[in-house]
Amino acid sequence: MTDYLLTCTLISLCILLTVKGLKNAPARLNFYILMIALACWFVPWQYFSQLPLFEGANRYTFNVAQLIPDVKALIPNAEQVATKDELQSDMVIWDLLPSLSNVFMVLVLAGFGLFLLRVGLYVKLIKNLYINSKPSPELNHINNQYPIRLTTHTEPAFATGLIKPVIWLESTMTHRKELDSVIQHEVTHLQQGDIYWTWLICFIESVFWWNPICLKLTGLAKEQLELSCDELCMQKLKGKYQLDLASLLLQEQNAKSSPNFFTPPLLNIAHSKSFNIQRIKMLNKEKTMKSKYLVMVAAAMSFSALAAAQIVDGSSDNKQPSNNTSQAPVKSEEYKQQLAQLLKSAAGAKSDTPELLNQAAQGIQDWHLNRDKLTGFEEAEIKLQSFRLLNHVYSKLEQYEDILSSYEKWYEPGSNPPYFLKNSLATAYIQLGRYELAVAELEDLSKQLEGKLHVGSADNLALAYIYLDDYDKALKTLEQVDAKDDVYGNILKYYVYDKQNNRKKMDEIKSKIPEAFAVTPALLPQSGLPGSQLLRLL
């Protein structure tokens, strides 16, 4: 959702600035570019990067995920590291907090309900108008294109009807000198199809009722509809329309009219007092299409298109690991050279022979000490990937103290290490029997992730609790993880149930774990080796 909101906001702000610069351009031009900005809020920008059309476009884009620390932006195969997916074990209240996408859907669905409510109010209004109105054939000489009905409604005039348009005229207007201008105004609205645009604006305004940017855009769009209508009427009636409009709009009865968000969309001549004054002033200015206006619109559209194309969501859950490679930033030659040297130094990392593993570990350490520091994202990535490879080698050698000491050397205080490496530290502490320190690392990790842990991290935390004989916390941690296929977690649950003498729960979960662990007394599984993306390159 981050890239969707950011893209739409950038496009909308660009359009708003353009409209401000086009204040002397024809109102219809401003109206159309405002509608383009509103239409952008219906475009699912977050999915565009997954289309084949956009493959290979990464060199021209930046990744929103780089603005916020994210595991998948660094590690495509992040099965064994922590991400923001699961709830913290000791903060049950987070269960009640929905995701951003869920909140968005609820707000949009509420907007659909609001639109249906406004449609219902509109239908009710039309019925009441027909009951409390009468036709006015005596006005046919002014307009014979649309029927005119006299009503007691407070507005001087307004138009309704998607299929059968009707102009509704306040009964006292028949004796006013502004009658011709008022009717011409509503006829022009209908001839331009503004009734359809008004309903479209009403729909957008309802769906995005919670979005101040959209409400600002819809408000400006409705104003531009009125201004464009005034411009056409001015061309037809000349100075008479300007005088009639000033006489009508500046009257006290019209200033009392206050807009209501729930009011059905109507094409009427009454607006806020400030806008009515603006309408009168704008009629003194000649509105003609100039080349500079077209240049400004073209520039605005180009910048908006660039903003949409530049933003790629690097944290989409729908992307498969195999696709992340094509979406990753293009690496420099220096990065590629250091990576090749690292792989050469760690040639024995896949071996099971202690001698070759020790050579690989020493090679990685020497490579790290002698290499030149890269810049930005490349430095963070190669440092992370090389440490994970070193972590894998030391784990195979069961040299867990070396993992901790290497971490202290590679990530000195103040170096801002990747937060999910706490999971690697916790695993080392568990293997060394320092369970309190493992719990401290993982609980701190959970706090940094706003109370969320990945399945693997949650399993590690539960295992540490088990070794501390805190079975209640272990079970609570495991039950908060939505991982139906997490065999390791199910084995831990089975072990906890056995310790709690809960035979019923043991029987329920027995079929979900391997037979070797479905025994009594229950057995704890061995921790798996930490993975490394670089192993497949060796």
TrEMBL record:
* Keyword Ubl conjugation belongs to the record: no
- The portions of this protein that span the membrane are 31-48, 96-117, 293-312
Residue ranges of the Peptidase M56 domain? Answer: 7-282
Segments forming a coiled coil: none
Family annotation (SUPFAM superfamilies): TPR-like (SSF48452)
**Superkingdom field:** Bacteria
CDD domains, per this entry?
Answer: M56_BlaR1_MecR1_like
Key words, A-Z: Membrane, Transmembrane, Transmembrane helix
Descriptive protein name: M56 family metallopeptidase
